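Chapter summary example.
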Amino acid sequence: MPRCPWCLGDPLYIDYHDCEWGVPVADDARQFEFLVLESAQAGLSWLTVLRKRENYRRAYVGFDPARVARFTPRTVERLLDDPGIIRNRQKIEASINNARRFLEVRREFGSFSQYLWSFVGHRPVANNWRTLKQIPPQTELSRGISTDLVKRGFRFIGPTIVYAHLQATGLVNDHLASCPRRREIIRNYGQLRIR
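The structure predicted for these 195 residues follows.
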């Protein structure tokens, strides 16, 4: 299969590309998982994060934002000692802060997904890139969402992280035009209205 070239060379990457990347996510737990992981990835490769994902699921209690929001300074110290995750104090503290902000957004909009999907009219955006070089690291959409999230008190959530989040959770389909997954996702989810 002619996959997007960024995933080639590692079975974990290929599996992520083939089964998960770009598939629309409406579940708040999954949205929160990707927020934590995308923020943790800043400055590192996504493959590094994927290799630590199961450890993150354990350390972040299944990515339950209500439980993460209750993490204490003692929890932060425990996480800093956990070799299974990326041990960066700023990223860990931001993830706890973001869990609290996530819950505030959920209370205001009914769900975080509802809030996020409203930026794209509740339908996935399908781009038609031919090469990896054409895919931007951020867009006007990701800048707007990032600005709104920062105003709401989120941290470690710039426009590049937000764009990676949009790609991962299927708000934006950035599989290359030559990749069969692009067509599969459009066929299966293109007309789906995410609520």
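To summarize the output: The chain has ten helices and two strands.
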